[in-house]
Amino acid sequence: MDAPVLFEKKGKTAYVILNRPEHNNAINLNMRKALCDAWEEIEKNQDIFSVILTGGEKVFSAGQDLTELSAFREKEPFAELPLNNLETFGQNVKKPVIAAISGHCLGSGFLLTLVCSDVRIASETALFGMPEVKVGVPPAFGIPAILSRHFPPALTAELLLFGNTIDAHTAYRIGFVNEVVPIKEMLLKAEQYAHQVNEMSSLIVGNIKDVLRKVTAPDPMAIAYSNAMCMLGRHSEDYVEGPRAFKEKRKPVWKGR
Questions:
Q1: Does 84 score more than 90 pLDDT?
Q2: Helical spans, DSSP H, in the chain
Q3: Phi and psi torsions of 117, nearest 5°
Q4: What values do phi and psi take at 173, rounded to 5?
Q5: Cα separation, 157 vs 148, whole angstroms
């Protein structure tokens, strides 16, 4: 079985490549474990100055593996999936991360780019969204608070309440992505950013990143309230029904409780 995340180092740059193409890079337990291993290696390796995160040219990530989630919910209706936290999604990575995003970047995949990356290069095919509401999954990890730090209120509401997507050019206009490029130029552009930062002091760059993360962090009270509402949603029949319906390839039957 292929590794769910490919990790390699070229010069001063580490490449973290999501590698479940047959499942549109849906994030499951094995991928979460592999991401944790990658972040650990990046942090302890002093020869790594930058990180390029990508899912390849076809798709970045379709989000959470709902088949895994449905099976887990049957046994543990209210517990969190193992290693499903902001640390796994790269919240504490201290080195600059350049995300090269193509195709669907949804749900947990979208969260990965929100939490982990500092610079985002999107191909013209990139689509961003939080479709969890369509399958009855409440946004976890304070996603509403995190998302509202990057997007205007009206667009945040559209993404979360309706599960709609936005294209790369819209993401560029509001400042979420740095550049939109043809798909064949995406990785090259990310490497140009990496090469630039590799020539700088890793100490100074790391300090600047730390400051930026702190001054742009969401309000802790907003995070706490968001998480509390998430837990209310998890104690519902709809929360079990949504992923189950997805697994069974049928429309969910919502009960509002």
A1: no
A2: 29-44, 66-75, 107-116, 143-147, 153-162, 168-173, 186-198, 202-215, 220-234, 237-247
A3: -85, 150
A4: -60, -35
A5: 9
DSSP single-letter state for residue 25: T
Q: Residue 257 burial by CB count (10 A; 0-12/13-18/19+): exposed, middle or buried?
A: exposed
Contact in structure between 223 and 94 (CB atoms under 8 Å): no
Q: pTM of this prediction?
A: 0.91
Q: How far apart are CA 95 and CA 97, in angstroms?
A: 6
On whether the CB atoms of residues 14 and 41 are closer than 8 A, the answer is: yes
pLDDT digits (tens, 9 = 90+) for 141-171: 889 999 999 999 999 999 999 999 999 999 9
| CA separation, residue 56 to residues 43, 63, 140, 177 (Å) | 23, 15, 26, 17
In the structure encoding, which two tokens stand for residue 71, read together? 């099976």
Domains and CATH numbers, the chain: 5-184+201-214 (3.90.226.10)
Residue in this structure with the two tokens 């079990």, named with its chain if needed: 240
